[in-house]
Amino acid sequence: MRGRVSPLIELGAGFHPDFSGRENAYLNGLVIGMSKAETEERYAQIVDFAGLADVMDDPVRTYSSGMFMRLAFSVAVHADPDVLLVDEILSVGDESFTGKCYERIAAFQQAGKTIVMVSHGLESIERWCHEALWIDEGRIAARGYPKEVVRLYHAASGSEPKRVEGKRSLRDSLNPGDLAAAIRVLEPPVRTPEAWHHAARTLLEVQNVGDTVWRALPPTRRGTVMVGGRLSCGGRYLGEILRALIPRDLHPGESACVEL
Fold first, then answer.
1. Cα 37-42-47 angle, rounded to 5 deg
2. d(C-alpha 95, C-alpha 91), whole Å
3. How far does the chain reach from its first CA to its final CA, in angstroms?
4. CB 227 within 8 A of CB 204
5. Tens digits of per-residue pLDDT, 220-238?
6. Domains of the chain listed by start with CATH number
7. What are the φ and ψ backbone dihedral angles of 218, each rounded to 5 degrees?
8. This model's pTM is above 0.70
9. What is the CA angle 31-32-34, rounded to 5?
10. Residue 142 pairs with which residues in a beta bridge?
11. pLDDT tens-digit series, residues 39-62
12. CB 188: neighbour CB atoms within 10 A?
């Protein structure tokens, strides 16, 4: 292990029920490795993110489970961890705050931080994880891309959903197969009217002609396809552009249109 770890293992871990929300914010910050000065510096941000300004001086035993989760998550993410451990806790809380949590998790992913998520919520695993590990009675039953591991889990439990005929399973995330694309220009590059910067628009159709399913998100792992181009003005080279290619996973033989 390298770096600071923030655990969200269960509601109440690292909190004292008779202490106020304010006192527990400092206590929990110390538990996960923040100094008192760091907690003081970030305290206002912690309270604002949690949305608990009116009750921070009340003992946390008077909090609802959702309020408890708000404070715990807010302290954990404001510790600026290198590793975030999450165990089912995001199933508690209202929809708006859960959305804020997911936005912060996405920001952590984009910053290259490590997130370990343990959950029975298979949709969350498919949505957020690059790689999934199915543990059955203490043993590794499957490991690889989340959608494929979830499919194997459903098959073993007798609840496998119907699959679209002709679609192939995802390869192991550590061993991608043949990644290949066929690109067709549907609408050629057109200069946009803004005069103060260089901007152009084009529409492409890109087909997966390999044997590995392309992953839509996040665009940081092998197996994800990117599309890009080189920008020039006359003979003057301006630079390159890159963007994530697809809004959803794309199976072999399927194609998608992307505006670049």
1. 130
2. 10
3. 40
4. yes
5. 444 456 677 777 777 888 7
6. 5-118 (3.40.50.300), 181-259 (no CATH)
7. -85, 160
8. no
9. 95
10. 134
11. 999 999 999 988 899 999 999 999
12. 9
